[in-house]
């Protein structure tokens, strides 16, 4: 099995991760040259090397595209599920994603309204820390 954190490495650096993942390979990264004025943020672009990097990591573990691959992003919906679907389109046959991601959803009301304190890996008592394992953080360029 291969368990991937598919968030931008900068996000991982500021929010934390779990050493349970095999690696951080971003499905999408912030494009600092593409500003979205309407949403007041940089747009994100798909890592064109994503599938090849996943396949190479599988091969390094003695696995192929039929092995179980699990992806995890911040909330599960913006990159977790899309990265799993993308890998399936690229011929990976056994891909799933962590439904509520690493941080989970935002509280809709109460004193923590708007904060990501609902469900997710981080809020479920699973192992995580503020620092990513340096051997697992993504260092590739695209």
Task: Give a summary of the structure in a few sentences.
With 142 residues, the protein is an alpha/beta fold.
Question: What would you say this structure looks like, in words?
Answer:
- The chain has helices spanning 9-15, 50-60, 80-89, and strands spanning 2-5, 23-24, 28-36, 41-46, 69-72, 95-97.
- It has one domain (2-124): 3-Layer(aba) Sandwich (Oxidized Rhodanese, domain 1), CATH 3.40.250.10.
- The longest helix has 11 residues, at 50-60.
- With 142 residues, the chain is an alpha/beta fold.
- Helix content is 20%, strand content 20%.
- The strands form 2 sheets. It has a 4-stranded parallel beta sheet with strand order 2-1-5-6, with helices on one face.
What are the defining features of this structure?
four-stranded parallel sheet; alpha/beta; Oxidized Rhodanese, domain 1; two-stranded antiparallel ribbon; 3 helices; 142 residues
Secondary-structure map with pairings?
Elements: E1 2-5, H1 9-15, E2 23-24, E3 28-36, E4 41-46, H2 50-60, E5 69-72, H3 80-89, E6 95-97
Parallel strand pairs: 1-2, 1-5, 5-6
Antiparallel strand pairs: 3-4
**Overall pLDDT score:** 92
Radius of gyration: 15 Å
Number of domains: 1
Distance between the termini: 26 Å
Looking at the structure, what is the overall shape?
Answer: globular
Number of helices: 3
Q: What is the CATH topology classification name?
A: Oxidized Rhodanese, domain 1
């Amino acid at each position: 099995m291969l368990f991937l954190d598919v968030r931008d490495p900068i996000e991982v650096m500021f929010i934390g991760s779990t050493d349970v993942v095999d690696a951080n390979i971003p499905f999408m990264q912030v494009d600092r040259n593409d500003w979205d004025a309407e949403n007041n943020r940089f747009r994100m672009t798909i890592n064109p090397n994503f599938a090849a990097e996943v396949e190479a990591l599988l091969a390094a573990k003695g696995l192929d595209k039929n092995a179980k691959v699990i992806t995890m992003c911040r909330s599960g919906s913006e990159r977790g599920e899309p990265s799993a679907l993308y890998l399936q389109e690229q011929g990976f046959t056994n891909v799933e994603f962590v439904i509520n991601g690493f941080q989970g959803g935002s509280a809709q009301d109460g004193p923590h309204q708007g904060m990501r304190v609902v469900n997710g890996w981080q809020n479920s008592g699973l192992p995580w820390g503020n620092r990513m394992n340096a051997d697992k953080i993504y260092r590739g360029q695209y």
